[in-house]
Structure formats: structure tokens, C-alpha cells
Amino acid sequence: MSTRARPVVVFDGDCGLCNGFVAWLIRHDPHGRFLIAGSAGEVGRSALAAMGLGSHVADSTLVVATVDGPRLRSDAVAEVAGGLGWPWRAATAMRVVPRGVRDSVYDQIAKRRPRREAEDSACGTPPPALARQWRARLATQHDVAALTESRNEKTPHRDR
């Protein structure tokens, strides 16, 4: 493998909170460690399928597709935080809290998230100041294939 597969953040492009999170991510990920894909688009659906998840999962849950498998809810937030610089990386300390507790808080926030129409539900609505960077971070089918290939290389196949 010549290039390292980048994690893909799959989000609900119709959700104002999700769009805000992705805008925040783009601002705080200057090295482009993470790619993005709206859950309603073909690439987002492919990334979810590659992780063994149904497309409905990202309707209310942030998903990060990684070489090590999918990260959901609070684990997805921790995955993103861990890929960023300081001080954001410190948020990975949330992992000391039991997942059930973290996910309960995540679910309560998700229930109250603002919903709004997106101009393009396949990729969300980028803030005008971030439109160019946002579009440059959109994952492609090639990115999903590289992620899947890297995941398959990492998981040894057992001989029968």
C-alpha cells in the first residue's frame, strides 16, 4: 500500500449539529487526517457498508470508518479528538468513562440536535468560508476502497 488510508467521518448532512461538527473538524484538522462523507450520498453509504453497517446508522450517529473498524457515538468523537493536536487530543480522556455512560450523554445530545434542510444532503452544507476546504475533504469511492483494502491487509485471513 503506497498511501495510508485516511479515516472517513460519515455524518448526517441534514443535521445542523453534524454540519457544525464537520466545520469544526475542518478548522482543527489542518493536516487533513480525516475525510468526510454525508450519509445520504453514495460514498457515505459505501463507507458504512464497508464497515458492515446499514445506511440508517448515520441518521442519528456520527460514524468514523477506520482501518480498525467503525467508531460510533462517543467512540467516534474520541477517535476524531485523538487524531487532532493539543488541546483537542486531551478529549480522548473521555474513554475512562464507561462507554454506556458516554453513549447515553451522546444520545441525549443527538435527540436535541437541530435539524435543517441541507443544500446537498450527500455532503452537507459547508459554511461559505469553508466551502473550498470542505469540498477538498470529501471522501471518494477510491478512499473507501483504500480504507477497505487496508482493513483487509490488517486482518489476517485464516487458512481452512
What does this structure look like?
This protein has helices at residues 16-28, 42-50, 73-83, 99-111, 131-136, 141-154, and strands spanning 8-11, 35-38, 63-66, 69-72. It has one domain (8-154). Helices cover 41% and strands 10% of the residues. It has 160 residues and is an alpha+beta fold. The longest helix has 14 residues, at 141-154. Strand 1, helix 1 and strand 2 (35-38) form a beta-alpha-beta unit. It is globular. A four-stranded mixed β-sheet has the order 2-1-3-4, with helices on both faces. Helix 2 (42-50) runs parallel beside helix 6. The two termini are 26 Å apart. It has six helices and four strands.
Which labels suit this protein?
160 residues; alpha+beta; four-stranded mixed sheet; 6 helices; 10% strand; globular
Structural class of the helix and strand makeup? alpha+beta
Question: Mean of residue pLDDT?
Answer: 84
Number of strands: 4
Order of helical and strand elements: EHEHEEHHHH
What's the gist of this structure?
The protein is α+β, with helices and mostly antiparallel strands and 160 residues long. Helices cover 41% and strands 10% of the residues.
